[in-house]
Amino acid sequence: MYRSGGYTWAQVWHLADRQPEISKYVSECAHALASSSDGTMWWAHPGGGADGHDRYNGTLERSTNGGETWEFAAHITPGVYPAGGYGYSDLQPLSDGSGVAIVYQKTFNPPIRSIEGGGYDIGFARVTLALQE
Fold first, then answer.
1. In sequence order, which residues have a C-beta less than 8 Å from that of residue 124 and are 6 or more positions away?
2. What is the pLDDT averaged over residues 52-81?
3. Predicted local confidence at residue 25, as pLDDT
4. Which tens digit of pLDDT belongs to each residue from 76-100?
5. How many whole angstroms separate alpha carbon 78 and alpha carbon 2?
6. Do the strands 89-93 and 71-77 form a parallel or antiparallel pair, or are they unpaired?
7. How many CA atoms lie within 13 A of 62 on its CB side?
8. How many C-beta atoms lie closer than 10 Å to residue 128's C-beta?
9. Whole-angstrom Cα distance, residue 43 to residue 62?
10. Which of 50, 57, 36 is nearest to 129 (CA)?
11. Taking 90 as the threshold, does the pLDDT of residue 51 lie above it?
């Protein structure tokens, strides 16, 4: 597959066909995706719930082959709601290539019942990993 930084596309495929075990997270809107200068792609998403639509258990995955396959990298907010509350997010690869910085919507713990969704704050995580060759 020819890669031109997103200017052209040589091949179209669907995650559900390649890795059906993680395709349940695709339809949730609270994802962040970025790539490092070394080509590593990073994908942060809520990993909670049986159908992947509950906003908790923030999960970071990475791909070293252009998104063809993904591997678990880290839990950002492990656990169930509300302790592991994880909603909309953004991420930025660290300049030294060692991981990512993530900012995300964090559910109040304990939730405030008078606020829809329990109330939200801003969470921040810095995830550093040794990349496997």
1. 101, 102, 103, 104
2. 82
3. 58
4. 887 666 666 788 899 999 988 888 9
5. 37
6. unpaired
7. 23
8. 12
9. 6
10. 36
11. no
